[in-house]
């Protein structure tokens, strides 16, 4: 485990867009990531998801998920590799999934991660495996059923 901080980048939500999001909706920030403290895991994201539900989180309307916070990293599905672990259950090299999204390297508590379960994920085809389990197919099927087309 390294004791020197790592410089990482994260994509932050800069402002609520009027209409379609543009580059100005986001900002890139460099942050220093220290060694993972006790009970935390340090992860380097490999794949980050961009999903349709994220557009709704850019607004402040009532929704089933809270809106993105201005100045904070975007949240969303991601798969990463454990760089260092200061807790039981994960070791360097393990592939994990989280909703901590748009950042390169970060520390977070162990309960926020799940082990990447698919055998294909462990063979470096993780992005395809993740896409198969993503919410888009379920959302499309649910909408199709609710409109009466699937009865």
Explained architecture:
- This protein has 151 residues and is α+β, with helices and mostly antiparallel strands.
- The chain has a single domain (6-146), classed as Medium-chain alcohol dehydrogenases, catalytic domain (Quinone Oxidoreductase, Chain A, domain 1, Alpha-Beta Complex).
- Helices cover 19% and strands 29% of the residues.
- It contains 4 helices and 7 strands; from the N terminus they run E-E-E-H-E-E-E-E-H-H-H.
- It has a 5-stranded antiparallel beta sheet. The chain has a two-stranded antiparallel ribbon with strand order 1-2.
- It is globular and about 45 Å long.
- The N and C termini lie far apart (55 Å).
Shape: globular
User: Mean pLDDT score, rounded?
Assistant: 81
Question: How are helices and strands ordered from N to C?
Answer: EEEHEEEEHHH
User: Portion of residues in helices?
Assistant: 10-25%
Q: How many distinct domains? A: 1
Strand order of the largest sheet: 6-3-4-5-7
Q: What integer value in Å does the Rg equal?
A: 17 Å
Low-confidence stretches: 128-132, 134-138
Number of helices: 4
What's the total number of strands?
7
Percentage beta strand: 25-35%
Q: Mind telling me which CATH architecture this is?
A: Alpha-Beta Complex
What's the main sheet like?
5 strands, antiparallel
CATH class: Alpha Beta
Oligomer designation: single chain
Assigned CATH superfamily: Medium-chain alcohol dehydrogenases, catalytic domain
End-to-end Cα distance? 55 Å
Q: Could you please say which CATH topology applies here?
A: Quinone Oxidoreductase, Chain A, domain 1
